[in-house]
Specification:
Elements (H helix, E strand, L loop, with lengths): L5 H13 L4 H15 L6 H21 L7 H5 L5 E2 L5 E4 L2 E4 L6 E2 L1 H19 L16 H10 L6 H4 L3 H12 L3 H9 L8 H13 L6
Helix pairs in contact: 1-3, 2-5, 3-5, 8-9
Length: 216
């Protein structure tokens, strides 16, 4: 059952903020989540609206507050950059952090985009229209491509890494890439012979070029 707790709506909002979605992208993302969860959450629109309102209210409270444990120089950065989490936030040095992520901060501009994106999303739902999906997709690299990319960027040539054997490298790289140890170890052990993975390298180079980067 896809029941939503209130914190889930906050995470929908966080996704839109973190990925810097524009108004139309935000509306499509909200619409896609509504489509997924509406069957079990028929109050989805109101709950999402309430979550945005709550975040906006917290933003105003943070701006107006003058907590004793904040230095005056630290308070000043809150004018344009405010944590959106209504659960927990703190300042360390010159950065504002939230419970969800180091990037979870809400400016006035981003709040306006959220509100306008919500209005457009609600309009699509009321009119029973399907918005166009214009959210950029992040290319997904295969494990072979990711390891090859590390190799070409000089990771395996680092002094501390060169001292490791294949087993240790397998453990380390599997942690970095969040992949299974066995698959990672096997590919590292084979040293990724470029002739045998030419098709993988060609696909990787195409992705790099599309991102405006040089081929390997």
């Amino acid at each position: 059952m896809k029941y939503l707790l209130p914190i889930k709506y906050t995470r929908f909002i966080y996704y839109a903020i973190f990925h810097e979605l524009d108004i139309e992208q935000t509306s499509f993302y909200f619409w896609s989540q509504h489509k997924t969860y509406f069957e079990y959450n028929q109050n989805f629109i109101n709950e999402l609206r309430n979550s945005i309102d709550l975040i906006a209210k917290k933003r105003e409270e943070v701006i107006k507050s003058n907590r004793k444990d904040w230095e005056e120089s630290e308070v000043s950065i809150l004018n344009g950059l405010v944590p959106f989490s209504h659960l927990y936030y703190y300042i360390e040095g010159d950065e504002v952090y939230s419970e969800f992520s180091e990037e979870a901060i809400l400016s006035n501009e981003r709040l306006l985009i959220l509100r306008e994106g919500f209005v457009l999303f609600e309009k699509y739902v009321i009119n029973k229209e399907v918005p166009k999906n214009n959210i950029p997709t992040t290319p997904i690299l295969t494990l072979t491509q990711r390891i090859h990319l590390l190799k070409k960027l000089g990771f395996f040539g680092l002094n501390k890494v060169k001292e490791l054997n294949d087993t240790q490298n397998g453990h380390l790289v599997s942690l970095l890439l969040q992949s299974s140890y066995k698959n990672t170890y096997d590919k590292i052990r084979l040293r990724l012979n470029e002739k045998t993975i030419k098709h993988e390298i060609d696909k990787l180079n195409n992705i790099l070029v599309e991102l405006g980067l040089e081929k390997l």
